[in-house]
Amino acid sequence: MADDWIVETVGLTKQFGGFYAVQDVSLRVRRGTIHALIGPNGAGKTTCFNLITKFLRPSAGRILFRGRDISDQDPARVARSGLVRSFQISAVFPHMTVLENIRVALQRKLGTSFHFWRSMRGLDRLNGRALELAEQMGIGGFAQVAAAELPYGRKRALELATTLALEPEMLLLDEPMAGLGREDVSRTTELIRRVAEGRTILMVEHNLSVVADLSHRITVLARGQILSEGDYAEVSKDERVIEAYMGAADA
């Protein structure tokens, strides 16, 4: 049924000069699932993210969110509609505390994020929800710590908390495990599983053990096109996928 798909792309294409970073990608993400987008370096994964969240304008094709065409919408409007993304690079305010970072994200939802002249007391009403999100992401004990002083893995948890403050219906995670040690990967995997309750997640991730553990469905990209789709058991046995990864490793 059409209602099963929260995001669909139809013939999505992005051309830079004579180079096709993404070409004729038709992707469907089922509501309430964790869907992974994988592929060797240069496959077009992050470009797809940028197109879906409107940080890039498609050269051709359409993007549907909840059945509505968002191809011509700007990134802010897409985010307000419930389609929110994270980035590979840390996107928190380093000199603000964990609590303050989450509170800023909560202000965005209220439409007061640019009211810097508001009394700090006026923002105290957001503290309860901010602390709740910090606890949910396992960083409640760091509430008064500046983001710059957090261990890297805890910064990732803070990014998830600020993203959740926007109450997204769908979350796009761009390499959430990048730069994490084994312990932090395990912790972040569990956080993503928790975040996914009642939401849809589309993630780009290079750690295939994480992909195997979390994903309901996987789309493999190679040279900007869909190479294979299915669950992990299916795509991991696909000779084309094996060749694409081995070829990338040999290059």
Plain-language structure description:
- The protein has a 6-stranded mixed beta sheet with strand order 7-8-9-4-10-11, sandwiched between helices. Strands 1, 2, 3, 5 and 6 form a 5-stranded antiparallel beta sheet that branches.
- Mean pLDDT is 88; it is low at 112-117.
- The chain is 37% helix and 24% strand.
- The termini are far apart.
- It is built from 10 helices and 11 strands.
- The chain has 2 domains: 1-82 and 169-251, P-loop containing nucleotide triphosphate hydrolases (Rossmann fold); 93-167, no CATH class.
- It is globular, with a radius of gyration of 19 Å.
- A hairpin with a 2-residue loop joins strand 5 (60-65) and strand 6 (68-69).
- It has 251 residues and is α/β, with parallel strands linked by helices.
Structural class based on helices, strands and sheet pairing: alpha/beta
| Helix-strand sequence | EEEEHEEHEHHHHEHEHEEHH
Main CATH class of the largest domain: Alpha Beta
Number of strands: 11
CATH topology of the largest domain: Rossmann fold
How many domains?
2
> Order of strands side by side in the largest beta sheet?
7-8-9-4-10-11
- Give the termini separation: 42 Å
CA radius of gyration is 19 Å
How would the global form be characterised? globular
* Biggest beta sheet summary: 6 strands, mixed
**Helical proportion, percent range:** 25-40%
The mean pLDDT is 88
- Strand content bin: 15-25%
Please tell me the CATH architecture of the largest domain by its name: 3-Layer(aba) Sandwich
CATH superfamily of the largest domain: P-loop containing nucleotide triphosphate hydrolases
